[in-house]
Amino acid sequence: DDKIVSVAQDGSIKAIGSGEAIITASSKDDPSIKAVCKVFVIVPVSEIKINDSEVSLIAGEKKSLYATVIPNDATILDIDWSSSDTSIATVNEVNGDIEILGTKAGTAIITAKSIYNSAVKATVKVTVLPVPVKSVEVVGESNLVMIENTQSTVKAIVMPLEVENRAIDFVSSDNSKVAVIGKPILSSDGKSYEVI
């Protein structure tokens, strides 16, 4: 098919258009003696573009990404997606869409790479922010009645539970009447802090 490949007398071939062609070399003395070579001419990928160059999300959030392969008539359009740090952000195909998930605070680079030519790629910088504190809640009794010179334990927890820094400061509104003794310690439940 000379629309796909042209052949010179010296056997050199030139790719003309995409597709498949068969080159036949035959003996001039006996044309029935021949050899064939299949030639596949492809349209290479020249560029990949992603809809975002930078993305910020809170740990636990998801965001969709879209990539465009240029030219759009490239023979091999498939893309390989990867994350530079899967502990911070992962990238997955979900129902045909590419979805990134922020897993913990930090920065990762998401790369979309042509499977035809790994040198053709595009990247997105993903910044994952920590889950913000929404509230601090007292665990158990929130109204204590105490006798002078006695001690009691107050336990509190940061919400939501996905917050990375769960440390809590306990402060008395009047140290002459009720004083906080010592530093807060992590409770046995591993989620709340308590102080005497």
> Strands across the major sheet, in which order?
6-13-12-9
Class derived from helix and strand content? mainly beta
Poorly predicted runs of 5 or more residues: none
| Secondary-structure element series | EEEEEEEEEEEEEEEEE
Whole-angstrom Rg: 33 Å
Whole-number average pLDDT? Answer: 89
Tell me about this structure.
- With 196 residues, this protein is mainly β.
- It has no helices and 17 strands.
- The strands form 6 sheets. The protein has a 4-stranded mixed beta sheet, with no helix packed on it. It has a 4-stranded antiparallel beta sheet with strand order 14-15-17-16, with no helix packed on it. Strands 7-11-10 form a 3-stranded antiparallel beta sheet, with no helix packed on it.
- A hairpin with a 6-residue loop joins β16 (185-186) and β17 (193-195).
- The model has no long low-confidence stretch (mean pLDDT 89).
Describe the secondary structure blueprint for this structure:
Elements (H helix, E strand, L loop, with lengths): L4 E3 L5 E3 L3 E8 L7 E8 L5 E4 L3 E5 L3 E4 L1 E4 L8 E5 L5 E6 L2 E6 L3 E9 L6 E9 L5 E5 L14 E6 L25 E2 L6 E3 L1
Parallel strand pairs: 6-13
Antiparallel strand pairs: 1-2, 3-4, 5-8, 7-11, 9-12, 10-11, 12-13, 14-15, 15-17, 16-17
Keywords:
single chain, 196 residues, mainly beta
Provide a quick synopsis of the model:
This protein has 196 residues and is mainly β.
